[in-house]
Design a protein that fits this description.
The chain is built from 2 helices and no strands. It is mainly alpha-helical. It starts with 16 loop residues before the first helix and ends in an 8-residue tail after the last helix.
């Protein structure tokens, strides 16, 4: 059994700038494409009204 030592992976305090950029890009993508709590509630409310046959807009 091999035990991992701190030196096995290099300096633990060193972070690659490109890796940080990838993480930031992924976080920003997820934030931009995830609905907020307010929009989730409104979407449910509209769906519920339509399901019960109510009209959203009157002409």
């Amino acid at each position: 059994m091999h035990r991992f030592h701190p030196g096995d992976y290099g300096d633990a305090n060193y972070v690659d700038a490109e890796f940080v950029n990838i993480l930031v890009a992924a976080a920003r993508y997820l934030a931009a494409h995830s609905p907020s709590m307010r929009s989730q509630g409104r979407t449910f409310q509209i769906g519920n009204q339509l399901h019960h046959g109510k009209h959203l807009f009157e002409e």
